[in-house]
Design goal:
Layout: H1 12-16, H2 19-23, H3 32-39, H4 44-53, H5 57-64, H6 68-77, H7 82-102, H8 105-113, H9 131-145
Helix pairs in contact: 3-7, 7-8, 7-9
Length: 150
């Protein structure tokens, strides 16, 4: 992994998590995220994602299924666990994918917050606490992108 490759702009996922300054890395490939997740993200990634998605701390807590007190403690400690980092990354990657499909971040965030018939009436955000739920959301985004709505 090239931890600080400033020759190219950071991906949206990196920017959603606070950028190169917060992560102290710029992953080149998907597998580069493994090391970062295992190490645990800096707690600054929480605030960055809250700002970027315009979620409240409470909403983020619900989406990630992490108690607000745990998030507050991690912010004081300065570091997330691997499991917490994984959940944060999953959310950021889904937001990035939604923005790719809908072009605008606001449209993507609106879609993520809205009940969706393809997801049994659940909002996409409400499903991101599990890998299976996130895969369902990503599959739905893929169908939208390719014009298959059923």
């Amino acid at each position: 992994m090239n931890t600080l490759n400033l020759d190219r702009p950071p991906s949206l996922t990196v920017r959603l998590l606070g950028g190169v300054d917060a992560l102290h890395a710029q992953p080149d490939e998907t597998l580069d995220w493994v090391e970062l997740v295992r190490r645990g993200f800096p707690a600054a990634a929480i605030d960055a994602l809250v700002r970027a998605t315009r979620m409240t701390q409470s909403e983020l807590s619900q989406v990630l299924r992490l108690p607000e007190r745990t998030l507050a403690r991690r912010k004081r400690e300065g570091q997330l666990s691997a499991e917490e980092s994984d959940k944060l990354l999953r959310l950021a990657r889904v937001v990035e994918r939604a923005q790719t499909v809908f072009t605008e971040l606001d449209a993507a965030l609106d879609w993520l917050r809205s009940p969706n018939a393809s997801l049994a009436g659940a909002s996409p955000l409400s499903l991101l606490d599990t890998d299976v739920g996130a895969e369902s959301v990503l599959d739905t985004l893929g169908r939208i992108e390719h014009g298959v709505f059923a």
